[in-house]
Amino acid sequence: MKNLVIIMLLFFGAQELVGQQLDKKKLDQYFEALEAGNKLMGSVTLSQEGKVIYQKSIGYADLDQEIKAKPEFKYRVGSISKMFTAVLVMKAIEEGRLSLEQTIETFFPELENASNISISQLMSHRSGIFSVTSRPDYLSWNEHPKSRDGLYKLILDGTAVFDPDTKAEYSNSNYILLTWILEDTFKQDISSLVEQYISKPLHLRNTYIGKEASVENGEVYSYKFLGEWQKAGETHMSIPLGAGAIVASTEDLTKFIEGLFAGDLISIESLELMKEMQDNFGRGMFKIPYHDKVSFGHTGGIDEFKSMLSYFPDDRLSIAISVNGSTIDPNQAALTVLDAYFGKDFEVPSFKDTNISSEELDQYLGLYSSPSFPLQITITKDSLVLNAQATGQPAFSLTYEGDHVFTFYQARLTLVFDPDQDQMTLKQGGGEFVLKRNAVEK
């Protein structure tokens, strides 16, 4: 099954990959093609042993003022912030202020199961606390400021989704609560804690807890593509706090994770505790695979921003990508940069001038399967982008080529739809499979 289709090809490889001379010119052409095709706006930094070996910015920081993106510009990095918060928690533990097994009822006596929820369980998403950002009404208030009491009441309003430590499930509430624990413990706000314990020691001049975005301050705005780029709404930073309020340049992100793994922020013993995995969750980080290699890091998303930060310990290699507008999965761009570094072939895409409406995409949605094909393929959409997801694999974005044809060039995959017959033909590597639509998901 691993030699068939889909994301599998991106994450598994049969041979050891070896870094070689980076083809920067071809990588530039790749990103310029994404920019020209309205596929991506953002920045990427690749660093080895503390030295930037590739950096590229495409698109705009502010379309209204026609301000182009620059490498030093800062992006909202969403849940990558959790790595910063986890570092601060480990710092508090090293200083004897907190402990991993300490329960949280003294901080939050009103919270359901508080006496059975530990600091460690908050860090590794094993608390069972409902994620406040999953509330059905979240988008009706996320752009407005919230006091601590107001946000806490919303967290209390959600009932537990499972008993503590019986499983893992991602919840932003965990890291909002950790923010308040840190603030109460240190008697400092999260902004000053990030500056004192992370930004200053590592000389990060473009990393801090964000406020209202300001292009005059070198920050970028996020955009969604609806036939043209349109400015997106802006989450008020009083809400995500240590769960998602960090603003940073991609170069600063690589410096942060390199400093973390070098022991410049916390001890290596504390880092190992962050790296411990249970049900695929560490304490503030994940394992992120690439072929036969493993990196550690985190992804992030807030408004239309999408980010990824990852470090390969064996190669002393870090990569950070922050996107403020995309019509493809930014993961594809990150993988292409890694392909270039590790000597794997990659293509510079050529995007045709094809437009398709959100309503037209509806005809392709559904669950496709075939007795001759081992995986089911679910087709969904996100605004003007069609997404595909194979059984047990991450979703990936498709590029419309016209005449019911979509491609995923990273895996040299082509999907040809026949809506009238409720079927889809999947083509890759000389193989061709016809899958029937079993259910429609709109």
Automatic annotation (TrEMBL):
GO molecular function, one term: hydrolase activity
Limits of the Beta-lactamase-related domain: 28-331
Keyword Hydrolase: yes
The protein's Enzyme Commission number: 3.-.-.-
Keyword annotations of the record: Hydrolase
Pfam hit, one: Beta-lactamase
Keyword Hydrolase among record annotations: yes
Entry protein name: Serine hydrolase domain-containing protein
Organism encoding this protein: Fontibacter flavus
